[in-house]
Amino acid sequence: MLRKIKDDIYSVGVIDWHRKLFDELIPLPDGTSYNSYFIQGQEKNAIIDTVEPDFDQEFLDNLEQAGVEKVDYIISNHAEQDHSGTIPVLLEKYPEAEVLCSAKAKSMLLDLLELKEDQIRVVEDGETLDLGGKTLEFIDTPWVHWPETMSTYLQEENILFPCDFFGSHLATSDLYVEDEAEVFKAAKRYYAEIMMPFRKIIKKNLAKLEDYEIDMIAPSHGPIYDNPEMILDAYHDWVSDEVKPQVIVPYVSMHGSTDDLVNYFIDSLIDEGIKVKPFNLTDVDLGDLAISLVDASTVVFGSPTVLTGPHPAAVYAAYLANVLKPKTRYASIIGSYGWAGRMTDKLLDLMPNLKVELYDPVVAKGHGADEDYQEIDRLVAEIKTDLENL
Ligand code: FEO
């Protein structure tokens, strides 16, 4: 589908309405899009990012509809295949085109797409490209979410093309953000799943972008932000060191003991006026859990003991929390065991990246006795004190 953004600037990407998983890992409840942009200058033209290779014909059709007979530059902001994968097809159709990318992206494109070295030219941070009345500036914005990523800025129109950065997995017919709440949630999910581990570097990228006047952000997934403050403010909030007073409880129970303990814990928190959100790990969208980890102050895992260790569902959640590196400040574990085990130690060993203050875990033998529930009261009191002092 060809859609005009401004004179000589077009959206030429595709919508993937039905994709359910990304990387065979990340749930996509709302599908996604692979946005690509075509910019025609008075002398030269450029395509910014391409699309997932499954959609190559639709992409070529869009370019044909735009009347593109010759392509001068293909700008590859990011080497991941959902944006770069159609470059070989483009080069077959437009062999005169030159691929422009960061130095790190060049070696990645050579590895991933088997392009020829002389088809690629490295551009430097701050370098500009004059298309004739339209000037593109390349801005290094690394680690959003691979090391080679850069953004492209159209100076005359103040449009930022940041590829994944600020994007959202959201298939919609809206070219621009219309439902801000819907896009906010999709963008937060996207940040949670792939950007959060790089929070501190993203903070630096955001600071760098403050030198630019940005009237529009055109990412390579999801709708375009014609009111960029919305997503810029959200990112500033997500990458800040501030946490929100909320207790996240990812848990699993086998015979009901952990369930009883966790439910008592949740009810006690609610009685104390503390915001709490449980996630039953046997039936969870891990993206929802990741969203909650973006700014929650506290996470308390719940797990029974299986063969001396945590339940595998809790292992998966702990591994995920560890790789996502949330800014969570406090943590603990609630659980149960039958005869012996090192469930808590093994679970904690999986999360070295969580720089948290740990409350003493509460682990009951079988279904909890009175003293176990008193321990949960102690845990709730400690959480309450810390949240009041946030
Ligand atoms: Fe949308 Fe990192 O690719």
**Beta fraction of the residues?**
25-35%
Q: State the end-to-end distance.
A: 49 Å
- Provide mean pLDDT, rounded: 97
Overall number of strands: 24
The Cα radius of gyration reads 24 Å
Bound molecules: MU-OXO-diiron
Number of domains: 2
Number of helices: 12
CATH superfamily of the largest domain: Ribonuclease Z/Hydroxyacylglutathione hydrolase-like
**Would you tell me the structural class of the helices and strands?**
alpha/beta
CATH classification class of the largest domain? Alpha Beta
Give me the CATH fold name of the largest domain. Metallo-beta-lactamase, Chain A
CATH architecture of the largest domain: 4-Layer Sandwich
Family: In the N-terminal section; belongs to the zinc metallo-hydrolase group 3 family.
Domain Flavodoxin-like: 247-390
Protein name: Flavorubredoxin
GO molecular function: electron transfer activity; FMN binding; metal ion binding; oxidoreductase activity, acting on NAD(P)H
